[in-house]
Specification:
By secondary structure, the chain is of the alpha+beta class. The protein is built from three helices and five strands; from the N terminus they run ααβββββα. The protein is elongated and about 60 Å long.
Length: about 90
């Protein structure tokens, strides 16, 4: 499913104009991005939780030379699906 699919489905179900629906979807995603940028968890009931995890510096190897290197610290996005979504995916 793409963002365009979400916009079209909402437009059909709610009856907003294409522009209003597109702006609403963009606003929702922008709010989610802002929360994640400030390292706040985004919880969507019945769907799951998005959160930011910080990775520390860790040792690694250059695959071409085998030389040890330090992998720089970074932030990664995590997602944990809700039990409701998992049950639904498994047909229960």
């Amino acid at each position: 499913m793409t963002k365009a699919d979400i916009v079209n489905t909402l437009k059909e179900k709610i009856g907003f104009s294409n522009i209003e629906t597109h702006e609403t979807v963009d606003l929702i995603f922008e709010l989610m991005k802002q929360s994640l940028e400030s390292e706040k968890q985004v919880k969507i009931s019945g769907f799951g939780n998005f959160n930011v995890k910080s990775k520390k510096v860790r040792p690694g190897r250059n695959p071409q030379t085998g030389e040890p290197i330090a992998i720089s610290p970074r932030k990664v996005l995590g997602f944990k699906s809700s039990p409701v979504l998992i049950k639904r995916m498994n047909g229960k």
